[in-house]
Amino acid sequence: MCGIYLTNIPYEEDLVRNKLETISFRGPDYTGIEKINKLTLGHLRLSILDLDSRSHQPMVHENLHIVFNGEIYNYKDIKKELLAKGHNFNTESDTEVLLIGYKEWGESILQKINGMFAFCIYNTSTNTIFSARDRLGVKPFYYYWKDGQFEICSQIRPLLNDKSINEEAISMFLDCKFIPSPYTIVNNVNKLPPGCFMKIDLNTNKFEIKEYWNLDYVKIRNITYEKAKQELHDLLIDCVKIRLQSDVPIGSFLSGGIDSALVSSIAAKVSETPINTFSIGFDNPKYDESKIAEQYAKIMGSKHKTTICSSDDILKLIPKLVEVYDEPFADSSALPSLLLNSVTKEYVTVALSGDGGDESFIGYHHFNSLVKNESIMNIPYGIRKFLSKPILLNLFRLNTHRVRNALNTKTKNDFIENIFSRKGYLLNEKKQDYMKHYQGYKKWSSNFLQKAADLNIKLWLENDSNAKVDRASMAYSVEVRSPFMDYRVIEFARSLPMSFRYEKGRQKKILRDILKEYIPEEIFNQPKKGFAVPIGGWMRNELKEEFLSALNDDFLNKVPNLNVNKFKTILNEHMTEKDDHTENIWKLYVLSKWYKEFGFR
Fold first, then answer.
1. Residue 538 has what pLDDT?
2. Which residue positions hold the site described Important for beta-aspartyl-AMP intermediate formation (predicted)?
């Protein structure tokens, strides 16, 4: 887990070093800079495999130079294949395997590797650059391109000098609390989409982007439930095993949920020594799952560490949130994620997590909402529109937000998109251009739940969950690995009948039945509280003056496309406890902090 940098702009080495210093938390063990021809390659190393200096980057093999961020989990198998072909190796790192693998197979190496990655390889013989990002966008990849000049980096901060703000991106952020790829907060800087590679020809100063992996049309397997459960269990064991490869201490995050419990249980079983597990607890019992996690830990025999945090502990992390997330990011669970990683770093450098399980195995609350509303959505829209009249809603006692939303939403696809998009709620003018990049979910499956799960994977997983985990972990130089993010698990889950994953409201059915082999069901079958923090209450109490000061007229009037009057109304409703507008207020607060941090005043 590291930070990469590459540019053809003729910066002095000291300036490049200063740029890398702004994100040095990504790789505190070594900073490498190489100038070759008209390029500058930079790398920040967090040493995980082969701690020797021979594995520092940029790494060179014959005519190839690489900077690489991530882990190739199946590198040992690929190395055996390359040794059989006569290649020699000087290190024990996965970086060298990736580099020599590219030498042997070219861009086809992407079909062979299983991992999380963002890398650039410069070929001095052809004067070309080959870059790629992993299938699910676990690792970040930003690039600036203008008139043949470019910069590539793991984070956007080193690319921000003299850049203008992207006003369209501000509207996207206010709509969905993150900025979806390929967009970024500034003009001329983009994210390379997951499952894509980019080729730059320095001879012609042109580049192209191509897709090498994506979700595909769902083909349901003819398989029994017991057979599917066994195959999934075996696959998850392999996914955990290959993520336990490390030359530094490794542990596992453990909440009260199904996913982290299963990952940690498998890790505890296959590990030769007791594993380290880590949980965050809250002094507010409404949000605390630490007691359940401690029960899990006792059963699996892990060395467990629970950190109970107060609101003050969380609030102190707001400056850190703005510092390390680079772009405006308004998922408030980033705050406890930062705290969890700060504690974890005291004991280990690598941690397993359960991220990605909800998407594939239908775990989020909004999936239940879809099921409850599907029968309503099956009614022709004209009839639903008629039934949405208040007098009829009150007559039939249907006047709830959930029912009103279903009656007024034109199509099932719109209903799914409403989960992730506020459809311009805070804006003067609706701007939904970003959704055009995520329309594949409409064609991959006809199943209502699978469609929502696919949009969850393509839109939310990359831009929210993965961004949250990457920045929160790298802020403290921790590498997080999630077995559920293995593309084999994603593909396997989509091939199963929906009833194997979701049946009569029983979410993650197949995962629960596997977990029963490790932990008694009565222990893990408790209500999930999520990884939330009581920000709404803080806004009205201990942070009231802070929020009102940050969200002043001067700031609000600078936000492009913001409906200021509407926002002031919801702010007042929230502060007087007439309604809960936590999410929308938090978005504007985070944006105000970002403006101040990055000098966009």
1. 85
2. 355
Q: Strand 196-201 and strand 128-133: pairing?
A: antiparallel
**Considering the chain, what percentage of its residues have pLDDT values greater than 70?**
98
**Catalytic residue flag (residue 176):** no
Q: In sequence order, what are the beta bridge partners of 419?
A: none
- The H or E element that residue 469 is part of is helix 467-474
The tokens describing 47, both together, are 């040493």
pLDDT confidence band for 543 (50 / 70 / 90): confident
**Residue 502 φ/ψ region, left for φ over 0, alpha for ψ in the -120 to 50 degree band, beta for the rest:** beta
What is the Cα–Cα distance from 573 to 330, expressed in whole angstroms? 20
Task: Write down the residue that tokens 């251009």 correspond to.
Answer: 433
**Do residues 367 and 508 make contact, with C-beta atoms less than 8 angstroms apart?**
no
Q: Strand, coil or helix: what is 413? A: helix
Instruction: Write phi, then psi, for 539 (nearest 5 degrees).
Output: -60, -35
Top pLDDT among 397 and 588 is at: 588
32 is in an annotated binding site: no
- Per the structure block, which two tokens stand in for 486? 């293995």
In this structure, what token pair is assigned to residue 18?
């200063």
| 140 prior amide bond cis, ω within 30 | no
Q: Are 190 and 209 in contact (CB under 8 A)?
A: no
Residue with tokens 């590459």: 6
To the question of whether residue 23 is assigned a binding role by annotation, the answer is no
- Read off the tokens for 24: 């040095």
12 torsion bin: left (phi>0), alpha (psi -120 to 50), beta (else): beta
Q: What is the pLDDT of residues 335-345, one digit of tens each?
A: 999 999 999 99
DSSP 25: G
Q: Which of 2, 176, 196, 239 is catalytic?
A: 2
| Cα 404 from Cα 269, distance rounded (Å) | 48
* Coil, strand or helix at 566: helix
Q: Is 280 annotated as a binding residue?
A: yes
The per-residue pLDDT for range 274-325, each reduced to its tens digit, is 999 999 888 777 777 889 999 999 999 999 999 888 778 888 898 999 999 9
The model carries a pTM of 0.94
Q: Within 13 Å of residue 201, how many CA atoms lie on the same side as its CB?
A: 6
* 354 annotated as belonging to a binding site for a ligand: yes
For residue 601, is pLDDT > 60?
no
Domains and their CATH numbers in the chain: 2-211 (3.60.20.10), 225-281+292-299+338-361+454-523 (3.40.50.620), 365-452 (no CATH), 535-598 (no CATH)
> Could you tell me the pLDDT band of residue 252, with boundaries at 50, 70 and 90?
very high
Please report the pLDDT score of residue 531 as a whole number.
64
Distance CA 13, CA 41 (A): 10
Amino acid identity, position 79 = K
Q: Work out the pLDDT band at 427, boundaries 50, 70, 90.
A: very high
* Cα–Cα distance, 66 to 124 (Å, whole number): 11
Burial class of residue 512 in the structure, from the number of CB atoms within 10 Å of its CB (0-12 exposed, 13-18 middle, 19+ buried): middle
Q: How confident is the model at residue 399 (pLDDT cuts 50, 70, 90)?
A: low
Least Cα distance to 250 among 463, 483, 484, 528 occurs for 483
Computed over every residue of the chain, the mean pLDDT equals 93
Element (H, E) at 209: strand 206-211
